[in-house]
């Protein structure tokens, strides 16, 4: 019963993060702001939801696989959001009118 309660709380926390990110995506007007909200919330919500599944299943081979999924998402999501931000900066001709951009040699 205690595992079920902890699992349900973690699941609700993940759903809360996803819901607040959804509201934030509709409130922010600029694409980089929306991308930031989506990327950070996606990583945090995935952690809570997968942690909920780990608690519900107990510690076994499945939970190790789920931990590997969390590790992969923690590495892949920031890289993907950084790539999207760089693409927006490179392709948007009016970027300097909307935000301050600091160009580096690597871009």
Labels describing this entry:
82% helix; mainly alpha; 4 helices; elongated; 107 residues
Give a quick summary of the entry.
By secondary structure, the chain is mostly helical.
**Biggest sheet character:** none
Quaternary status of these chains?
single chain
Assign a percent range to the helix content.
Answer: over 70%
Please state roughly what percent of the residues sit in beta strands, choosing from under 5%, 5-15%, 15-25%, 25-35%, 35-45% or over 45%. Answer: under 5%
Q: Could you state the order of secondary-structure elements as H and E?
A: HHHH
Q: Structural class, from secondary structure content?
A: mainly alpha
**What is the average of the pLDDT values?**
86
Low-confidence stretches: none
Rg, rounded, reads: 18 Å
Span of the ends, CA to CA: 53 Å
Global geometry: elongated
Count the DSSP helices.
4
Count of DSSP strands: 0
Summarize the helices and strands and which ones pair or pack.
Layout: H1 2-27, H2 31-57, H3 61-91, H4 95-98
Helix pairs in contact: 1-2, 2-3
Plain-language structure description:
The chain is mainly α. 82% of the residues lie in helices and 0% in strands. The protein is built from four helices and no strands. The model has no long low-confidence stretch (mean pLDDT 86).
